[in-house]
User: Fold this.
Amino acid sequence: MAYRNKTYVCFDGDEDIRYYRLMTAWKANDNLPFNFHDAHDLNTARDSSAEESIKRKLRERFANSKMLIVLIGEKTRYLRKFVKWEMEVAIRLDLPIVGVNLDGARARTDRCPGAIRDELAVYVPFQQKIIQHAMDSWPADHATYKRAGSSGPYYYNDSVYTRLGL
Assistant:
């Protein structure tokens, strides 16, 4: 079994890649306390036209992933080919899910993709400090809530945002 220390980030590659790139820039900046082991660093699909080839490479990334971050943009809920599949795989693997709202919302919104709408997930806005907080604390919280039989959306209360200076 692979060592699971990666964070798998799924997003609308046509519309929202700039947010993913900003996350990787935060990670690269030594002056910011933002870090994650990016599953996208593991491999790339050589044949971008072959769906099964791409999914095979994505499954390899999932084999090393400990959580899923979904960047939720305006069109994310409409994507069926890969983004929906990625969310379904994460659910089957029981990975903790962090929904990151690109519109700044602190809770689940109507933009939330149907694949994760009723799943156990925490929702945060696209802000470096709260995303890092979710990456650091949600996996343990997810496990606790799962053991208790909980499901559905979670969000951090205002005191967490205040403590983080947000």
User: Anything to note?
Assistant: DSSP finds six helices and five strands in the chain. The chain has a mean pLDDT of 86. Helices lie at 17-28, 51-63, 83-92, 114-117, 128-147, 158-163.
